[in-house]
């Protein structure tokens, strides 16, 4: 690179010399994370930071750009639609609800054993519990007082609230009287008189469909067994023997 020096007090043109400029060394910027301590005994949450390499190969950068373009051109998925905010409807009891995804299965009946995934949050957005983090849904009998009132009412329906259907996802906003009231819960995790928000997913009863499939298989085996019995009684070759069928009559 050429560098020119010009005398400020003279009108003559200065002399130019060639100089090699060294590239500036760049140092990475670090961010210091500080933790705050609360008076309440909240569960400690760990935050994982994923650091990506600062430099990308040209081929990788082009592929990343095409991938982003493809994602923008694709229609929104159902998960994106579920994450979109929805307007809450307030029932006479004070419970507010919003269906993010209406299920296609049957509705629950009082006393039925059901499974539900959920995320519980305070009104300020603080998550105090999540069945997804445990990897196991909550199993309970709905409508018989095994859970808080807001859950029974929000799932079974009634008082202006439609019942949830299996496979559905619903947001519930519970006033204190339908939650844990003035006593709170969890040693200050849920303070007294707290308004609670739950994202509830009514799990499909997979056992029901498995029972149907098992019954169909039993019918198939019964038909095969009777067919083998018919062949065996009529001198057929290659008939499978099933001891439980008994002698030919």
UniProtKB/TrEMBL annotation:
InterPro entries: PNSL4/FKBP13-like, PPIase_dom_sf, PPIase_FKBP_dom. Its EC number is 5.2.1.8. PROSITE patterns: FKBP_PPIASE. Gene3D superfamilies: 3.10.50.40. GO terms for molecular function: peptidyl-prolyl cis-trans isomerase activity. Keywords: Chloroplast, Disulfide bond, Isomerase, Plastid, Rotamase, Thylakoid, Transit peptide. It catalyses: [protein]-peptidylproline (omega=180) = [protein]-peptidylproline (omega=0). GO terms for cellular component: chloroplast thylakoid lumen. Pfam families: FKBP_C (PF00254). Residues 111-206 form the PPIase FKBP-type domain. It is found in: Plastid, Chloroplast thylakoid lumen. PANTHER family: PEPTIDYLPROLYL ISOMERASE (PTHR47833:SF2), PHOTOSYNTHETIC NDH SUBUNIT OF LUMENAL LOCATION 4, CHLOROPLASTIC (PTHR47833). Belongs to the FKBP-type PPIase family. This is peptidylprolyl isomerase. It comes from Arachis hypogaea (Peanut). The lineage of its organism: Eukaryota, Viridiplantae, Streptophyta, Embryophyta, Tracheophyta.
